[in-house]
Amino acid sequence: MTNEKETAQARAKSYRTATKLVRGGTKRSQFNETSEAIFINSGFVYDSAEQAAGRFKGENEGFIYSRYANPTLSMFEERMILLEDGAEAARATASGMAAVNGALMSLLKAGDHVVAPKALFGSCLYIIETILPRFGVNVTLIDGTDIDQWKDALNEKTACVFFETPSNPALEIMDIAAISDLAHKAGAKVIVDNVFATPVLQHPLTLGADIVVYSATKHIDGQGRCLGGVVLGSEEFVEDTLAPYLKHTGPALSPFNAWNMLKGLETLELRVEKQCDNAEKVAAFLEDHPAVSRVIFPGSETHPQHALAKQQMARGGTLVTFEVAGGQEAAFAALNRLSLIDISNNLGDAKSLITHPTTTTHSSVDDAIKQELGITESMVRLSVGLEDVDDLIEDLGYALSRQKD
Running along the chain, 405 residues long, what does each successive block of 10 average in pLDDT? Predict the structure, then answer.
């Protein structure tokens, strides 16, 4: 039976992406349900006191408490492992920020050093810049696109580096392979927030990263239903370092949300590919529009790091950032004229969503840093959805036309 189980696991890893997304990790109960079951329970019972004691000692397999592990969560985690090239293990969390916090806090101790770009999502920057120093962790913030700054910042006390690529919201591209090489030479782990690229378009672990984090709220659910996160990496890191931290601090993903994530994964590749198609056409339209002063899209040849984006990403992504000529007043006016695209700070959704980063997602970031990162008052971030692209273009065209209501 063990050999048959190992053979089945090996075959599952060899399946192509679409098959992994639909079938990966599925375990049926005694009722042989078609769709994965939702195990909405907090605890589990044992056949005997001896079995309970053995379970807590780790001497036999089985579930103990849903804060530690749960059958529905385990299915989601296993499917993510199959999807994320290079991952050996995974743990799901209650949100993307719980995943970021767990990956960092489980790894670090007082006296350690962290290097990260200034170009981070506002909450990620808060953890790096504000929370970690409270616990005696030293932090160096740099321009993540400048390899020389990485070289200068890394030292023998650097425990890890953390970055997102593409970055939020300016869509800067970090060189995963080059940064990982430098970090490893310094003895540091590499944590990559891969949420914008998705596991469909980019595989950080195959490029040298050690740990990957996701806000599963975004493309993985992709339909605005629930919060969730996931951390992936080596079995040693996940089981020995991350799992105990999550077990005792409790940022557990609910089984219902894990089930939603499983359903989201079934269509992830289809959705991301269509969103990329739409994003390419929207970006091309915006680049030719007179009311738009700048378009940032990794899939466009006008992006300053287009060559690097092509090297480490399969497509240009689902996000398009652009600047409306005329500053914040003009940007707000354009957003307020949209009738199809929703104003929302979420992303990766089936519905197209747009936000003004400097007053929403990055409102807590110091103005000087926003200026340094090019997050201007005229900048808007568009998460391109699954609508007919001609309808999206018409909506944007009307909103940017400056017509009076």
Answer: 67 87 92 92 96 94 95 97 97 98 98 97 95 98 98 98 97 98 98 98 98 98 97 98 97 97 98 98 97 97 97 98 96 97 97 96 86 92 98 98 57
pLDDT in tens, 64-84: 999 999 999 999 999 999 999
3-state SS, residue 380: strand
First to last CA, the chain: 70
Q: Which tokens in the block code for residue 251? A: 């940022």
φ, ψ (nearest 5 deg) of residue 401: -75, -15
Q: Is the Cβ–Cβ distance between 118 and 146 less than 8 Å?
A: no
Cα–Cα distance, 292 to 400 (Å, whole number) = 8
Q: Which two tokens stand for residue 268?
A: 């992830």
Taking a C-beta distance cutoff of 8 angstroms, is the pair 173, 162 a contact? no
Give the helix/strand (H/E) hosting 68: none
Distance CA 109, CA 137 (A): 7
- Does 199 sit behind a cis peptide bond, omega within 30 degrees of 0 on the bond before it? no
Q: Which strands, in side-by-side order, build the sheet including 379-383?
A: 292-296, 319-324, 379-383, 353-355, 342-343
Q: Burial level of 305, CB count in 10 A (0-12/13-18/19+)? A: middle
Contact 44, 74 (CB under 8 A): no
10 Å CB burial of residue 33 (0-12, 13-18, 19+) is: exposed
Do 233 and 215 meet the contact criterion of CB atoms below 8 Å apart?
no
DSSP bridge pairs for 164: 193
* Element housing 331 (H / E): helix 327-337
Pairing of strands 319-324, 211-215: unpaired
- The pTM of this model reads 0.94
The pLDDT assigned to 403 comes to 41
Residue 52: CA count within 13 A, CB half-sphere: 8
